Amino acid sequence: xxxxxxxxxxxxxxxxxxxxxxxxxxxxxxxxxxxxxxxxxxxxxxxxxxxxxxxxxxxxxxxxxxxxxxxxxxxxxxxxxxxxxxxxxxxxxxxxxxxxxxxxxxxxxxxxxxxxxxxxxxxxxxxxxxxxxxxxxxxxxxxxxxxxxxxxxxxxxxxxxxxxxxxxxxxxxxxxxxxxxxxxxxxxxxxxxxxxxxxxxxxxxxxxxxxxxxxxxxxxxxxxxxxxxxxxxxxxxxxxxxxxxxxxxxxxxxxxxxxxxxxxxxxxxxxxxxxxxxxxxxxxxxxxxxxxxxxxxxxxxxxxxxxxxxxxxxxxxxxxxxxxxxxxxxxxxxxxxxxxxxxxxxxxxxxxxxxxxxxxxxxxxxxxxxxxxxxxxxxxxxxxxxxxxxxxxxxxxxxxxxxxxxxxxxxxxxxxxxxxxxxxxxxxxxxxxxxxxxxxxxxxxxxxxxxxxxxxxxxxxxxxxxxxxxxxxxxxxxxxxxxxxxxxxxxxxxxxxxxxxxxxxxxxxxxxxxxxxxxxxxxxxxxxxxxxxxxxxxxxxxxxxxxxxxxxxxxxxxxxxxxxxxxxxxxxxxxxxxxxxxxxxxxxxxxxxxxxxxxxxxxxxxxxxxxxxxxxxxxxxxxxxxxxxxxxxxxxxxxxxxxxxxxxxxxxxxxxxxxxxxxxxxxxxxxxxxxxxxxxxxxxx
Length: 685
Description:
- Residues 1-17 and 19-42 have low confidence and may be disordered.
- A hairpin with a 2-residue loop joins β15 and β16 (297-314).
- This protein has 6 helices and 34 strands.
- It is mostly beta strands.
- The two termini are 33 Å apart.
- The strands form 4 sheets. The chain has a 22-stranded antiparallel β-barrel. Strands 1-6-7-4-5 form a 5-stranded mixed sheet.
- Helix content is 5%, strand content 58%.
- Keywords: Cell outer membrane, Membrane, Receptor, TonB box, Transmembrane, Transmembrane beta strand, Transport.
- This is Iron complex outermembrane receptor protein.
- Residues 1-45, 219-241 are annotated as: Disordered.
- Its main location: membrane.
- Residues 223-638 form the TonB-dependent receptor-like beta-barrel domain.
């Protein structure tokens, strides 16, 4: 459909829908509760991978918002999303939990904040947390497949976009907002957040603040790889706080706004019982939109952000062992042309330019990479053709990437040097409505990703992975070709979908053990033998199946029942050696039964994972498990405000379970959470 002046942007539609429908479940990443009677439900528009603001997308996008997001929120983004089909997490304990998509992690999954780059060091190490507090988010979107190319080669796996209203996209006259307090859980968490929005038809403002405390996480009794028996994950407590201010001016054909934010967290590193991380990220961002710019140009959107990220690893005696710092800037401009009649349909498209600049430094005893600078400039083009039940989308992206080693210990990292790459990506997607609620979708893509600074220049002990890591400055870009097929059915409240995909890497940048060891002196002054892992390009294949469904059942005693399920299977193989790729989850899924009656919602959910026997060399199998959780929620009126009270009971049988996607050196130290009860109240006004 063509963009119109009344549809200011996809983000504006999302903002309006989320504020109008506190119980919306636009995705099937969670369950929705009963909608307040006075609320009007609006159909939101997906933002991620949707520069044309289309309501019928060709590519698979999952969203989480409204009450579903409230009930799914965890301490980290990975924990919040891991029940989604195709989505997992690295699970380095309760504080460091980065999302994975279709078995891919690190720099193959692009982390975005309001569609802009999230500057941090989470892809460098599993113990580095994301600077995101799910408490202040209004919406999370996960994009898989070919449309991710508009965000760069670093989105080969997919994109996770966290959305808030820190830069208001649409007028919200008066004052509205939400406040939430919560406590309990396996980590004895207590905290809360408040979000306020307001203004006039000409100006909008936003303010939010959040604070969270958590103790060491409780787990079923276990014995770790050091022979110690415990019921807690050692050194896993945390304290985080954040705040932001933003404002926008609105005019007849668009808006322009700015925001500033500050995020602090302090948490323990489980693999090192006396080490803590103190992290801070400060970010200033601006964004805007101008519609009806010129004849033939329907809309121009822009955004720019500058971030300063720093985290220090503090030893038990208070000394700072290593300091990581990343200063980054990113800019993005998109211009959409008007719809052009073509045969029996119409053609819409967008051309865009993206620029990213990052300066990274690691100073201290455990610095395994030199100081580096990464520059990335890209042009991309996306065209969409729709005719009756058919939709086709084609895209292309060309990048210029320079990764430079600019300083550090020359005995370890060598002389300063620069590496230049020119990744190119292409994609073609299609969908057709075949009637009776059924639709088919498919996509093919060819993607390239430039090596990161640590894949090129690493040379040192990585304590988090228990390995001596060595980069290779001669690495070529990672190259992948993917195909994705989907069958979907939606009718009378029921929704089912299955996706089958395969990705073949002609050059997969893997970190593999080479059989060597290095002798290092540990903190106790003892000699320690550490395996050597090297980054190198290998041929690889990943394929999988994702099933997701929701089926209304006949009502019982006034309760509306809904059956929900997800099943996820991913297999990865190093085609050069025949060995499985590391840290892949086994077959896993969920089965839930939800009941709604008036203001009440009750949901029982079984989460299960098979035993993972397909493991990489030097790894060990992970036992399967099944855990049961129960959610109870009730909407009620608090004066003139809408309120939601909820209770979440997790792992009711107190089952001991481990995550197969955790790095091997941490898995035995961090079982999944034990039996717990968690409660909270959210008030919207």
